[in-house]
């Protein structure tokens, strides 16, 4: 990471007016940028009260055709996966966006189950974004761009293959800044996959796992709520025959008769009830886990 190639793309408000700044010294504040031991740090010194509408840092980056780009989904509601540089993120169609933001589904809270309300979804190939960290992989080598501190605001890492750049965005909206504040701590790490992530975790102060690594299955990412007794039993039998030992088997949303009625099983989808499913799971030496709901939900 070359500090001389870093460019700011900032939009902010001060004194009731909106300003655009593309430098580390703006009319109402200045930014101190440093790179120490592979960590990019940005500190703010605001001479007046400011709120940010957009805070992007752009860095040139050359992508190769054989590269694989990983982006981390928002919480567990969007996919975390690798893409080819010419690929496209396709989780959110315009029709789906309309349904969850303009219809009764909005009142049900579905827009809150992802980042649809506060981040623009790219509807073109070659642009991939994720939360907190991401990487570019070339064979066994990875190049990680990862936040070390999200207390300042969420960090969005965008890999723009079309414009040959990496964009680091901070979610700083609706916060009034004055005086000295830290805005960003971003690690840039290159190396073999395991070693690079070990270094990333060390920089965050995350200790290595001491307990045995557990392996589990969840119905959500394969079927979402479109599950049934036959589907669950089929997958249970399939993973039971694998060389890998599975410790737990989770049945997620879709087993209940209605959303919120977590204790009432849909008899059409699960004619033999959940006890029969649980007994089958236990007979395979696994623990059964169900969908988690809120404390006040029935």
Q: What does it look like?
A:
Helix content is 17%, strand content 36%. Strands 1, 2, 3, 4, 5, 6, 7, 8, 9, 10, 11 and 12 form a 12-stranded antiparallel sheet that branches. Strands 13-14-15 form a 3-stranded parallel sheet. It has helices at 94-102, 104-107, 193-204, 220-223, 229-240, 273-283, and strands at residues 7-14, 17-21, 29-36, 39-60, 68-71, 81-83, 127-131, 133-138, 141-147, 155-160, 165-170, 177-192, 216-218, 248-251, 287-290. The chain has 298 residues and is of the alpha+beta class. The radius of gyration is 23 Å and the shape is globular. The chain has 6 helices and 15 strands. Strand 3 (29-36) and strand 4 (39-60) form a beta hairpin.
Radius of gyration: 23 Å
Nearest-integer average pLDDT:
89
Write down the overall geometry: globular
Cα distance, first to last residue? 51 Å
List the total number of helices. 6
Please report which band the strand proportion falls in: under 5%, 5-15%, 15-25%, 25-35%, 35-45% or over 45%.
35-45%
Q: How many beta-strand runs?
A: 15
- Helix percent band: 10-25%
Written as H for each helix and E for each strand, in order along the chain, the element string is: EEEEEEHHEEEEEEHEHHEHE
List unreliable stretches of 5+ residues. none
Outline the biggest β-sheet.
12 strands, antiparallel
What class do helices, strands and sheet pairing give?
Answer: alpha+beta
């Amino acid at each position: 990471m070359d500090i001389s190639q870093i460019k700011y793309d900032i939009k902010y408000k001060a004194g009731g007016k909106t300003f655009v700044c593309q430098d580390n010294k703006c009319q109402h504040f200045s930014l101190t940028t440093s790179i120490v031991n592979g960590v990019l740090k940005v500190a703010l010194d605001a001479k007046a009260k400011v709120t940010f509408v957009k805070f992007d840092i752009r860095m040139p980056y050359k992508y190769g055709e054989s590269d694989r780009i990983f982006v981390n989904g928002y919480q567990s509601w969007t996919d975390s996966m690798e893409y080819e540089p010419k690929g496209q993120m396709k989780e959110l169609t315009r029709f789906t966006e309309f349904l969850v933001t303009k219809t009764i589904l909005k009142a049900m809270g579905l827009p809150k189950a992802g980042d649809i309300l506060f981040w623009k979804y790219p509807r073109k190939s070659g642009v991939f974004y994720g939360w907190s960290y991401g990487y570019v992989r070339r064979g066994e080598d990875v190049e990680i761009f990862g936040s070390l501190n999200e207390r300042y605001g969420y960090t969005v890492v965008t890999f723009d293959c079309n414009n040959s750049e990496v964009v680091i965005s901070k979610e700083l909206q609706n916060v009034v800044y004055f005086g000295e504040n830290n805005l960003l701590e971003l690690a840039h790490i290159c190396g073999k996959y395991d070693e690079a992530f070990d270094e990333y975790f060390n920089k965050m102060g995350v200790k290595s796992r001491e307990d045995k690594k557990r392996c589990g299955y969840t119905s959500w990412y394969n079927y979402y709520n479109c599950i049934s007794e036959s589907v669950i039993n089929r997958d249970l039998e399939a993973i039971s025959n694998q060389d890998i030992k599975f410790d737990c088997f989770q049945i997620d949303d879709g087993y209940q008769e209605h959303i919120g009625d977590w204790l009432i099983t849909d008899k059409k989808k699960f004619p033999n009830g959940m006890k029969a499913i649980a007994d089958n799971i236990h007979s395979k030496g696994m623990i059964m886990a169900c969908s988690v709901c809120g404390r006040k939900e029935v």
